[in-house]
Amino acid sequence: MRTRRQKTFRDADEGFSVETTEVFLDLYGSATANIYLVSFIVSGISLVVGGIVIMNIMLVSVTERTKEIGIRKRPSAQGVWIFLAQFSD
Questions:
Q1: pTM
Q2: Cα distance between residue 51 and residue 64, in whole Å
Q3: How does pLDDT run across 36-62, given as a tens digit for each residue?
Q4: Cβ(86)–Cβ(69) under 8 Å?
Q5: DSSP SS3 for 72
Q6: What does R_g of the chain's alpha carbons equal in angstroms?
Q7: How many Å apart are CA 36 and CA 21, to the nearest integer?
Q8: Chain segment 57-76, per-residue pLDDT in tens
Q9: At a CB cut-off of 8 Å and minimum separation 6, what does 19 contact?
Q10: Which residue among 20, 39, 69, 78 is the one 20 to 30 A from 8 at the CA level?
């Protein structure tokens, strides 16, 4: 094999290496740690985007029902009932 790779006995490079299970376990640990980190970042971003979408839907809902809320306030409806009616939608 050494002659096929044109290596002599004086070369420092052996052309192969022997690895222990500890090296593979360290590699596996660092790879899974990076995968967990990326998954947490992606899930955090998706939660932020979902929160923005829900805020936008609530804003549109309140904007569309502003007139109805004003009509309910006119006969002195309590704020809790207006909130519950808006929140249930």
A1: 0.53
A2: 20
A3: 999 999 999 999 999 999 999 989 888
A4: yes
A5: helix
A6: 33
A7: 22
A8: 989 888 887 777 676 666 66
A9: none
A10: 20
